[in-house]
Amino acid sequence: MKTMIYKGYELSDQTLQKHIKEVFHKGGLVVFPTETVYGIGADATNPEAVKQIFKAKGRPSDNPLIVHISKNSDLELYVRDIPLIAKPLMDAFWPGPLTLVFNKKDIIPNEVTGGLSTVGIRIPGLKIARDIIDIAGLPICAPSANLSGKPSSTIFDHVASDFEERVDIIIDGGKAEIGIESTVLDITTPIPVMLRPGAVTKKMIENVLGYKIIDSTETKIEDTPKSPGMKYTHYAPKGKMTLVDGNEKEVIQYINQEIKKHKKEKTAVIGASEYLDQIDADYKVNLGHLNDLNEIASNIFIALRQMDELGIHYIYMHTLSNQDIGQAIMNRLSKAAGYKIVKL
Ligand code: TXA
Ligand code: MG
């Protein structure tokens, strides 16, 4: 399949708009940028189009997809029993990196929700993404744009290498500002449940609601995962990744020792510049400064993909604060490491 590649800033072009609209309406696929990660989108009301997404990603259709809309007033077209707390949450965080789970209307087919009677909805914060939804004139369901087994894509090169010749259109929006997928919050239950941590943090949600929510994310590094392996291979690089938790000095010492041990193999360290300065490895990937967790978040998936591109055998990284967006970062890193965490 020939893939057309367009730049986000070209979207005002009428011919381009016509093409995008046609592709969506005939059940095709469009990879597009959002502020979190790139998405691979299709008409959320067309079951055949939705099936194409799973085919292109190369994964079974078990995981429910997020439906993207461009304005609050469209919400009621797709969901029912909208709880009262939806409005303050939407006012506070939409457009933005918060997916809210509602009871779905029949117009959203089971192919989108993996058979669930609920559907996750969000309005993306990136204007290019909202423009694309408006051009389509449809709700757009989109999982993260990555082949099965790879980390989510946050830059154009990664979506292009995964999806060129597998989709009709790729829209290049540059680097995703946030770099980590949206927070998923189920509000169909009496007390909302956070299912996935993201840039909209638990604390931010609780501040809006004025009460505590339930956190069912597998984030805390103390937790023993119930079923490591299958469920979490999603983010895992091919090399063996280990997270090292402890004070800065101990962690640096430990990582330097491990690297010496594995001298004959390719080793890499992913980390904040403050750590990397004191580490001696074949490959070092700098995520940014320790005091800027947002910068670090935006570089995580790029770093993880680099590990496979470079064919690294052993990967080390220090843990980060679990506060604020740190919870989302640690959630993704723990998965990437298959929950291998050395506590010093
Ligand atoms: O930031 C994002 O959310 C990106 C961009 C493209 O919007 N999308 C994304 O989609 O990360 P995906 O498919 O990779 O992840 C969707 C997550 C999954 O963890 C899924 O289980 C959860 O949302 N989810 C979706 N619908 C749900 C539902 N009805 N109930 C529970 N969880 C749901
Ligand atoms: Mg994903």
Continuous helix count = 12
Classified by CATH, the class of the largest domain is Alpha Beta
If you compute it from the alpha carbons, what radius of gyration comes out, rounded to the nearest whole angstrom?
20 Å
CATH architecture of the largest domain: Alpha-Beta Complex
CATH topology descriptor of the largest domain? DHBP synthase
User: What name goes with the CATH superfamily of the largest domain?
Assistant: DHBP synthase
Characteristic terms for this protein:
344 residues; DHBP synthase; Rossmann fold; 5-stranded parallel sheet; binds threonylcarbamoyladenylate; binds magnesium ion
Topology readout:
Elements lengths: L3 E4 L6 H12 L4 E3 L6 E5 L3 H11 L8 E3 L6 H4 E2 L5 H8 L4 E7 L5 H4 L4 E5 L4 H10 L3 E2 L14 H8 L5 E4 L10 E4 L6 E4 L5 H8 L4 E2 L24 E6 L2 H14 L5 E6 H4 L6 E6 L4 H17 L4 E5 L6 H12 L4 E3 L1
Parallel strand pairs: 1-9, 2-9, 4-7, 6-10, 11-12, 13-16, 13-17, 14-15, 14-16
Antiparallel strand pairs: 2-3, 3-8, 4-8, 5-6, 6-7, 10-11
Helix pairs in contact: 11-12
Describe the overall structure.
- Helices cover 33% and strands 21% of the residues.
- It contains twelve helices and 17 strands.
- Strands 1, 2, 3, 4, 5, 6, 7, 8, 9, 10, 11 and 12 form a twelve-stranded mixed beta sheet that branches. Strands 15-14-16-13-17 form a five-stranded parallel beta sheet, with helices on both faces.
- A hairpin with a 6-residue loop joins β2 (30-32) and β3 (39-43).
- 46% of the residues are buried.
- Mean pLDDT is 94; it is low at 219-233.
- Magnesium ion is lined by residues 143-144, 152.
- Magnesium ion binds next to loops.
